[in-house]
């Protein structure tokens, strides 16, 4: 995966208002099934990873691990973020295609 392209895509998603960031907002988006893709920071706490993997699996929403909390936050013009939800099908598909592997859940 080209990390620079992924960061750029997250920036586009943010500017087009197709994301939710932060643990509370992401949890709500997942539970309401408004999320199309969940991105979890690789350095998120174990509790955060377990919680969001479980919710994502329950809701049938794919997720990927990418970057650090600081990198995710910087990509969307915010402070460090452990989780980001993509709400747009097209953006989610583009980001999913960028990763070398398939999302962990469908």
From TrEMBL:
Keyword terms of this UniProt record: Ribonucleoprotein, Ribosomal protein
Gene3D superfamilies assigned to the protein according to its UniProt record, in alphabetical order: 3.30.1330.30
Pfam families: Ribosomal_L7Ae
Protein's name in the database: Ribosomal protein L7Ae
Cell membrane found in the keyword field: no
Record keyword Ribosomal protein present: yes
GO cellular component: ribosome
Top-rank taxon: Bacteria
Transmembrane segment boundaries: none
Every Ribosomal protein eL8/eL30/eS12/Gadd45 domain range: 10-90
């Amino acid at each position: 995966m080209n990390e620079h392209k992924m960061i750029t895509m997250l920036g586009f998603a943010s500017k087009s208002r197709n994301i939710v960031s932060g643990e509370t907002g992401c949890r709500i988006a997942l539970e309401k099934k408004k999320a199309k893709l969940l991105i979890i920071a690789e350095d998120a706490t174990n509790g955060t990873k377990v919680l969001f993997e479980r919710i994502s699996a329950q809701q049938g929403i794919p997720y990927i691990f990418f970057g650090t909390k600081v990198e995710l936050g910087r990509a969307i013009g915010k402070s460090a973020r452990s989780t980001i939800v993509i709400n747009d099908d097209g953006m989610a598909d583009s980001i999913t295609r960028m990763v070398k592997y398939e999302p962990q859940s469908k």
